[in-house]
Amino acid sequence: MAQPALIAPLSELERKAQRLNQASDSLNLILSQVEERLVHANVGVEVWLRKALASTDSEGSTHGETTWSSQFLGFAKLNGRWCLAIKPTRFASGFFEGDTNSPYQNEYSDGAPIPLSKASRDLRIAAVEVLPDLINLLAEETDRCVRTIERASDLV
User: Which of 21, 74, 98, 120 has CA atoms 20 to 30 A from the CA of 11?
Assistant: First the structure.
């Protein structure tokens, strides 16, 4: 049995968790509706925002290299289906052979992208905040693709 001093805080936490779960269900519906509209638009163009939704703390090494991982929101075809997605990326930065005049930053895939619907609640909440940016990027990339195709058509 819980100590009397814990009963009130636990009850309050349970009420707050219930509100969070209800809000999360609403969030999932919004994300699903946006994804459905993007898929229905049949753009068929992959894009990834360059602003990270979340990042790990940087870790340094004895060789002066710093590494961290970030999660990016995008629209991509995963397992044969277009969807809102999360791409994990690992970064490494430092100075080539310790030369401060030769900085570098490398970017690596840190695993396969996953559908946003399968991502953590924290990432889904962060994603909804930048959805307008993703839609704008998708529109810009669509325009760029059209211009490229039109220029190619002029060559023939």
Answer: 120
User: How many domains does the chain contain in total?
Assistant: 1
Report d(CA 30, CA 64) in Å as an integer. Answer: 44
Q: Which domain holds residue 33?
A: 4-155
The bridge status of strand 54-55 relative to strand 103-109 is: unpaired
Q: Which residues contact 54 (CB under 8 A, 6 or more apart)?
A: 70, 71, 122, 123, 126
Q: What is the pLDDT averaged over residues 23-34?
A: 94
Q: Between β-strands 81-95 and 66-78, what pairing exists: parallel, antiparallel or unpaired? A: antiparallel
DSSP 107: E
Straight-line distance from the first to the last Cα atom of the chain, in angstroms, rounded to the nearest whole number: 80
Per-residue model confidence as pLDDT tens digits over 77-97: 999 999 999 999 998 888 887
Runs of H (alpha helix) within the chain: 4-41, 121-155
